Amino acid sequence: MQQFEKGETIRLEDGRSAIVDSFLGEGAQGAVYAVSVDGQRKALKWFRKQPSERFLKNIRKNIKDGSPSPTFLWPEALAKVRTGGIGYLMPLKPDGCYEFTKFRMAKVRFSSFRAIIEAAMNLCDAFRLLHANGLSYQDLNDGGFFINPNTGDVRICDCDNVYPHGENSGILGKARYMAPEVVMGKTLPNSYTDRFSLTVILFMLFCVDHPFEGFNVIKHPCLTEAFEQRLFGKDICFIFNDEKDINRPVRGVHRNALTMWPLLPEELRGKFKEQFSDRIINSPQERMTEMQWVDVFISLRDHLMKCPHCGDETFVYGNQPCLNPRCRKPIQVTYVMEGAGRSIPLIKGNIIRFERTGVPSGVVIDKNDASGLLLIKNLTEKAWTVLTPSGKSLSLAPGGFMPVKQDLVISTIFKFKINK
Amino acid sequence: MALTDYELIPTARRVLNLFMMVDTSGSMSGEKIAAVNDAIRNVIPIISTINDDNPDAEIKISTLTFASTANWINSTPVLASDFKWTDLDAEGWTCMGDATRELNRQLSHKHGFLASASGSYAPVIILLSDGAPTDDFYGAMSEIMTNNWFKHSMRIAIAIGADADIDVLKTFTGNPELVFRAQNIDALKAVIKATVVTSSMVASRSSSVGMSGTKTGTAASGATLISKSEEAATALAEELDDVAGLSVGDEALIDSLDFDEFD
Ligand SMILES: [Zn+2]
């Protein structure tokens, strides 16, 4: 229900004022308005029901402590009106970001694997920082995210439920996203159960279907609450579980999972299989941390490049064929660059990204003569130190070239060695 | 072939069937049936939005009217976004027993309205009546109580005016907290909107787990699955607590001394 009209002024607790611009929409808890504060565009969430004192105290603390990452649409100031009612100011979602539920409904689609990988990394990074600050999101599910389908930029809203570890807001979450040990009532949410929920979301980013919805779930014509609790608790089974085939995706129903799963590199599929195996499901403390997931996505990004035959985006591992069903040509990799636990295939056109942020550090080109030799161009603004097999140390200036040659070592933030 | 060239479909959604059982007996004629028509017409776009934005469920609507006979308005459940409301007229007896039998017949996966490749959630059934059944309602109830779809459904009843038989509605819902008595036209419109919206929202989501307050069956962590009927009852009580002319649950049993617009 729209309560404020355009032009209305609402006083914020920090002394500033928000001028209402437009009504953006309504969620379960309240309405959201676009407002302007000191000329800056912001969002104002207004609660439908008066929240509890504990809830407000917690928001005030979160406002004071500040956001762990710009990915969160973090509360910035509380606002009250004399007639009763309360809300808070937060950053406005950038244009071009859409609700994750729209991706699930195939109304919005990622334009590339690169964008999916960026989105996955952004999510992991945000939750890593949140957890590092001693906080937990509590109710991690498919609502509450906005993603830019072209860049993978992510914004996380509903941050008013962020509480310190060990405390909780009352509602523990949605059955299909909660760790089975929470569904079964064995434990309250904690960082290990958050990691389970995050892995469910990561799977959905890539496969656009739910990792535990297969035959074993849809064979029940009526998903009663008791069934739901069992199928996402005690009897939970990954649709691509290697040991059990009781819950395989069903043709015609779980089409997205069947389409996307074969396109993913074994490196990623293996992680999902492992994380959703009975062993890890039953050993929450062994679940991958956000940091370990980021490493997986960095590696995926290292192997994602343009096919030299057809120009399409494809994952390059060893001499595997291109993903494009109309190409399927093997992509020959002669040299790789190894270091920091990574292995970057050096094929023509590949962009090398040393840094986690993904800014291009170098590009592989061919020498354009009969030699067939590949070169690497330094795209950074700093000189690289290149160590030769004979022990020389050379400096490669920004914009300079070096050959792709066995045993050369590039020393930047990490050391990378060229190998066959 | 770019990533966007692979065909993706909306993620498989379970169906949430919303049944509206509307009393169209003679006593409903005039402003009561007009208010029902108006309220449902206004609530359809909201349900349509809930359906469009919900990756968990697609909402389908079936309307069963009952007067001297029980009739389905559509021959199969209609997706909320395609649903068109046709104004109902009121005339005849109150064959609520017939309606319950007809509902029982269609609450079936194999032979009824509930076939779905990706499965269904337990249905929501909203019953509106202003009178007492003129046929064998309790006989029909004992039959439908063996239907598992019915047993697991979320049922809400709206009593219109003072003459509605609250005991009958309590028997139907199995939960006095999900019986609402509307004493005037505004309360009736408000309660129709709130019950349709709230029940669709609650029933079309995955179950929630919350901290067990006073509930029994506490697990080790103190966390427990919140029953959807209970969740809907709480949400409706909150939503409707300031609507004038509305009584809920046991309150609805007390013969109201208020001025009754319907008389
Ligand atoms: Zn190719």
Describe, in plain words, how this protein is organized in 3D.
The complex is a heterodimer of chains A (420) and B (263). Chain A is of the alpha+beta class and 420 residues long. Chain A is 25% helix and 25% strand. Chain A has eleven helices and 25 strands. In chain A, strands 1-2-3-4-6-5 form a six-stranded antiparallel sheet, with helices on one face. In chain A, strands 17-16-25-24-21-22 form a six-stranded antiparallel sheet. The radius of gyration of chain A is 25 Å and the shape is globular. The mean pLDDT of chain A is 91. Chain B is α/β, with parallel strands linked by helices. Helices cover 33% and strands 21% of the residues of chain B. In chain B, helix 2 (96-106) runs parallel beside helix 3 and helix 6 (185-203) packs antiparallel against helix 7. The termini of chain B are far apart. The model of chain B is unreliable at 212-218 and 253-263 (pLDDT under 50). Classes of the chains: A alpha+beta (420), B alpha/beta (263). Strand 12 of chain A pairs antiparallel with strand 9 of chain B. Zinc ion is lined by residues 307, 309-310, 312, 314, 322, 324, 327, 329 of chain A.
Give the class-level CATH name of chain B: Alpha Beta
Total count of domains of chain B: 1
Domain unit count of chain A: 3
CATH class category of the largest domain in chain A: Mainly Alpha
Strand content of chain B: 15-25%
Identify the CATH homologous superfamily of the largest domain in chain A. Transferase(Phosphotransferase) domain 1
SSE order of chain B, as H and E?
EHEEEHEEHHEHEHEEHE
Distance between the termini of chain A: 64 Å
Coarse structural class of chain B: alpha/beta
Mean pLDDT of chain B: 85
Radius of gyration of chain B: 19 Å
The greatest interface between two protein chains, and residues involved on each side, is:
A-B, 64 and 48 residues
Strand content of chain A: 15-25%
Q: Tell me the major beta sheet of chain A.
A: 6 strands, antiparallel
Q: Give the ligands present.
A: zinc ion
Count of DSSP H/I helices of chain A? 11
Number of strands of chain A: 25
